[in-house]
Automatic annotation (TrEMBL):
GO terms for molecular function: DNA-binding transcription factor activity; transcription cis-regulatory region binding. The keyword Transcription regulation applies. This is LacI family transcriptional regulator. The keyword Acetylation does not apply. It comes from the Bacteria. It comes from Mycolicibacterium bacteremicum. InterPro entries: HTH_LacI, LacI/GalR-like_sensor, Lambda_DNA-bd_dom_sf, Peripla_BP_I. Keywords: DNA-binding, Transcription, Transcription regulation. Residues 5-59 form the HTH lacI-type domain. PROSITE patterns: HTH_LACI_2 (PS50932).
Amino acid sequence: MDRRPTLADVAARAGVSVALVSIVMRDAAGASDQTRDRVRRAAEELGYRPDPRARRLRQHRTKLLGVTFTVGQEFHADLVDGVYVAAEEFGYDVVLSGITPHRDETRAQRTLIDEQCEGLVLIGPQSSARQIAELAARAPVVVLARRVRGVDAVRSDDGAGAVLGTDHLIGLGHRRIVYLDGGRAPGAADRLRGYRRAVDAAGLSLSVRPGGLTEREGAAAAAAMLTERDVPTAVFAFNDRCALGVMDVLIRAGISVPQQVSVLGFDDSPLAGLAHVDLTTVRQDAIGLAGAAVQRLIGRLDRSAGCTDAVDLVREPTLVVRGSTRAVDELPAEMAADK
C-alpha cells in the first residue's frame, strides 16, 4: 500500500465497521475483547497508526508546543532536548523551527504560529523586547535563556555564573585574566557584569576583549592575544565553543593548556566533557531550565493559578572543574617568575 492506511482499510481487513474500529482505537467502551484483538491485529498488519493531528483538532486543541532555537548552538540543542522531555511528561508534542544565517527569527516564529502551536518557547531570542512582547500578545510565550521585561522568562543567573568562574581563576592565583565578551548575545551583559564585579572585588585590572559565540571567534581572539607581549595566564570565554577556539589556537602555537594558560568556558556543553577537551566550565542546568519553561507555558495554556503576571524565573549555575585550569604556583618556574 503506497498511501497511509486509514480506519476504513483496517475495518475492511478486520471485517467490522469503521465506527467499531474507531471505538477500539480510542479505547472506548462498546467492543468485545475478541473484536478488539481482531481490529488491533489488522491495524498492525497494515501498519496503521492513528493521526494525532486529527484527534487534536476534534478536541479543539493541537497539544503542540513550538520552539525556536539557533542551529549550531550546542547549548540550544541541550535545551531543546530538555523541552522534549518535559513536554512529553505533560502530554504535548514539540514542533521545532530553527534559526540559521538564511532564516531569521521572524520566519521561525511565523512557521510555528502557522502550525497552530498552542504556545511558544523562544530559546535565546535576539529579537527586540518590543517584538517579543508583540508576539506574546498573539500567543503564550516563554523566553528561555534571556530576560525580557513583561514576558515570562526562564534563565540561569549569568552574572552569578561569571562570578563563579572568575573567582575560581582568582583562587588559583591568576592575576592576568582576560574575559572574552559575548557582544549582544543573550546573557552577555550579565556575564560581563559578573566578571567585572569579581575582578573589582579582588582589586585586579579589567581585561575585556571581543569574543563571541563560536570556535572561529574564540580562535580569532586567541590569535590577537598572541601578537601582544603580555599574554594572560587565564582566559574566561563567553561560552564553551568560544573557549574551544581559544584552546585550539593556543595549543597549535605551542602554548600548553593549562600549564601555561588556563582556559574556562560557560554552559558545560557535551564537548566540554570529552577527555581530550576536559574543559573547566560554568554549568547551566539545561534539563531544569527547559522543564521550568515548559511547566510555565503549560500553566498559561491551562490558565493555572499564579500564571497571569509575567515572571522571571532564575536558576543558579554551578562550576564544573576539569583539567583546563590550573593554579599559578603549579606553572613552570620560568612563567611563575613573571607573575
